[in-house]
Amino acid sequence: MRIMGLDVGTRTVGVAISDALGWTAQGIETIKVHEELEEFGIERIKELVKEYVVTGFVVGYPKNMNNTIGPRGEASEAYKRLLEETFGFPVTLWDERLTTMAAERVLIDADVSRKKRKAVIDKMAAVMILQGYLDSKN
To answer: How far apart are CA 77 and CA 48, in angstroms?
Structure first.
């Protein structure tokens, strides 16, 4: 059973996948999307679900620091509903506060250039979201 972790943004969706035992998360790719044009990357996610035999999703849930839900949190809720309607799999929303900042810090500490960080930050955030979820289950 593999779980797919997703960091959903307005222009990209970072994708991570668990190992078969559900212990570790690995970054797969960053999918280009365009929220305003209602292009959500679902066709590519379908391909990845088939390739990795995914049975569930964890979607980053960007709550505000005071625990309220803003526009990005509402967008994640809508993405959750889209995934549920499309795949019929369980979808868990996972509090992702500060994961993008933490991912950026890891990449800076690894001396990754600004240009390269921009290319992988969403994928790294998806890994952190999924790994947090997996750690809570194990």
So the answer is: 21
Q: What is the pLDDT of residues 36-92, one digit of tens each?
A: 888 899 999 999 999 999 999 999 998 877 888 888 889 999 999 999 999 999 999
Estimate to the nearest angstrom the gap between the alpha carbon of 83 and the chain centroid.
12
Q: How many CB atoms lie within 10 A of CB 42?
A: 18
Tokens, residue 71: 């526009």
Pairing, β 25-32 against β 12-18: antiparallel
3-state secondary structure of 104: helix
In this prediction, residue 117 has a pLDDT band, given cuts at 50, 70 and 90, of low
DSSP state, residue 34: B
List the 25-32 sheet strands across, edge first: 25-32, 12-18, 2-8, 54-61, 91-95
